[in-house]
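Q: Focus on the chain.
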Amino acid sequence: MTPLTLAFSALSPAGASAKLNIFIFHRVLPEVDPLFPGEVDALRFATMLDWLKAWFEVLPLDAAVRRLADGSLPSRAAAITFDDGYADNYTVAMPLLQRAGMSATFFIATGFLDGGRMWNDTLIEAVRHSPRERLNLRELAPCYADLPELPLGSWAERRMAIDALINRSKYLAPSDRLALVEAVARESGAAGLSDALMLSSTQLRALHAGGMGIGAHTVNHPILARLSDVEARQEMAQSKASLESLLGERVGLFAYPNGKPGTDYSPASVELARACGFDAAVSTTQRIASRGSDPFQLPRFTPWGQTRSRFGLKLLQNMWRG
């Protein structure tokens, strides 16, 4: 065993003291995106899978959660998850997972299947394809009122503009946010934004038939903490029911949109996940899961080190933190 593998074994033994690393991804692009050069592409994902295969025993998340609860996890247990339901999860990620002999669980925001587009992707694609050299959006909404004019002369400037717009739009009421991003798209002058970013129902069924797990991620990817209990329950329950209808089997896993406890979901959201009949739910808290973890707030973490050693050391730090 390598020193890193020995360290992982010591921090994640088998049995009752076992720990579970749950890795989180969103997209795997076919090639490097100049707008998001740090986003995982096919070559990098394949490399990361090689590292994970060498260091961990990667299990399907549903099986890993059951074995965590009953104390039967193997040493260095891990699971891989994806959020949102992008089409490249099927076209790019799944073949690489199958080639590595691994399974992952894909959490699907069902309202965007079959041609939908998430609000943040509308902003991203509008800024990406804008023919303008700068954007002045201060008149569009109060949340943009103190936003300086946004230069778009380079990929780096466009990325900075996207980050500013997403950060100021994220916690608006869903209807206000939708109206605003559509206004930004019009103001950007971008034409023909893609409606093929997300999975189709056919791709989703093929993803599942290819040995991948499927979990629910609400319908519209809202900030659950900002909804009433009635609205939040509807988002959770409807996504579960839609997926069960599409797949013809029960869906037992849930991922909170954005996933930060207290900010993106509340204790009430956790109780609603239980009440909706899920077996477990995942957050984006950066920790490693143990037998004492709340099964409805399981942590997830992915280090973004570019080299094997940096990736491994960041992962080791997260495991040490417990």
